[in-house]
Design goal:
The complex is a heterodimer of chains A (334) and B (261). Chain A is mainly alpha-helical and 334 residues long. Helices cover 81% and strands 0% of the residues of chain A. Chain B has one domain: P-loop containing nucleotide triphosphate hydrolases (Rossmann fold), CATH 3.40.50.300. Chain B has helices at 50-58, 97-107, 115-124, 140-152, 170-187, 198-204, 235-254; strands at 5-17, 23-35, 39-43, 65-70, 73-74, 82-85, 158-162, 190-195, 207-212, 217-223. Chain B is globular. The chains are: A mainly alpha (334), B alpha/beta (261).
Chain lengths: 334, 261
Amino acid sequence: MSIETIEKQELLGQHAGPAAEKSKRARNIVFSVLGFAAASVSSFLIPDNQNVDDKVYRIILIGLILCYILTGILSCREKTVWNKYADRAPFRFAMGILLGVWDLLSTKTSILPLPFFPGPSQVTAVFSQDTAFLLQNTLYSLRLFTVGFLAGIILGVVTGILMGWFAKVNYWVFPALKLTGVIPAVAWMPFALTVLPTSFLAGVFLIAICAWFPVAFMTAQGMASTQKVYFEAARTLGAKQGYLLFHVALPNAVPQIFNGISTANGLAFTTLVVSEMMGAKGGLGYYINWAKAWSSYDKVYAAIIIMAILFSLIMKGINLIKDRLLVWQRGIIK
Amino acid sequence: MSNENLIEISSVSRTYTDAESRDVNALKDVSLSVKKGEFLSIIGPSGCGKTTLLRLLAGLDRPEKGEILLDGTEVTAPGAKLGYVFQQGSLFPWLTVKNNIAVGLKARHIYADNKSEVDRFIGMVGLDGFENSYPHQISGGMAQRVAIARALINNPESLLLDEPMGALDAFTRIDLQNKLLELWKENHTTMILVTHDVDEAIYLSDRIVIMTPRPGRISEIIELKLGRPRNRGSEDFTLLRTEILEKLHLASKTTEPEYAI
């Protein structure tokens, strides 16, 4: 098998280190792909009980196997990267087994009844059968999310700065913030749909308002938590109000601002899907509603998978920006 | 007012309200002149108001009575003319060593024309190679060097040092004391150092101000006639240390007991 040859290459490629370390690495890579390998074997060898197209599912399984072998070999070079890889090995194994069991219970034996519980083959087949429409709705969601979320963050940071810096603004705005903060943003839906001309703008409004609250709150809190000594040090160095605000209080608040953005991200994504399901004429939420009307549960699950991937990618992007901006924290906070 | 006096403190008083809402006389009727270019130390037991006096000098706090003049102008707010070195932890954690030192120039919008100054001051305090380190990555002694360089880059009339070596170990402390003398000679900055370390005060100062607590006031000003560089083991040094310690002891004996307010 290809796994074995690559495993051998990996063993030969390692010049330094004891043999035990090498075989441990090989075992971790094999462990990572073993679940997916088992799922592929059962998909190829056991005959289908349902009339489905297994192609995409099999491509994904083999793709995952190749991907984990490759990243496993590449991550050998650096210890921290490798440790992270090795740490996830049992999880990957379990994922593979889970996929295999799902496949067995549905496509292979129909123990899970259709149309409510389609197998992995049927769900993934949607990606190739309905590519254009799915992609269109994904992009629609992405557009709505980006515009609404960015608007919410900008609005939140600005409000937070004003609240954190001017006691008067805090006095008047904080109660309003607290009030809107406890109301789920989708409760504004009827209002938004009535007042705003398009459902897109209504969605932007809802997402922005739900992101606004945690970001504004955390920004204000982060600025207020600035130690007195930083302000005093800056003032003895000749700093005026503008400098104190933008170069002392604001950088001090950046870690908290990102806490706010992470919280906002979850809320905004929920709001996105709910608002699309309620009023929009496009987007993944709309797609789910539409698929449900046709009892195409495979499409519902396919859309859910895309949402999961989309959400974790957005989360990853935010964390990348955060790590870049908070280099100075590396080593202080684990 | 004499021309060579840089700072004139006249009859300054400051009262605080403590946690039990009692009034505490942090400073009562304190007067002091600081000569241009001198190295002055303020020494005394905790609670004698030495840090309060330094904060008033810097404009970080305002006196209730009396006034403080810098070059004939009243000090009403902190600014670049009076550099201040805090006890510890005053570096901006989100800025590198280099950018911490550049804060004074950036805050006064003169950074673009003086970029080379930052490197010069990094070299002056011996931190070459640490320009891009963050405050949490360097030692306490190095952090205080950064704090001193950061204050000196503004070329202040006077550098106010609030126990800058209080949190350092003995070796680092001696090292930093020598560095401070070096910087003092090089930049001709008037130094005002608050400390509770008698040796440090004798090693560094032209004059030592002894303060006593409750209420905080100046009990004595000692003019040091020792030559430089000073030897901590010399007879004169030891005699002076004994004399100051006795005075501090005596001073704290004659103060009012704590319960009689």
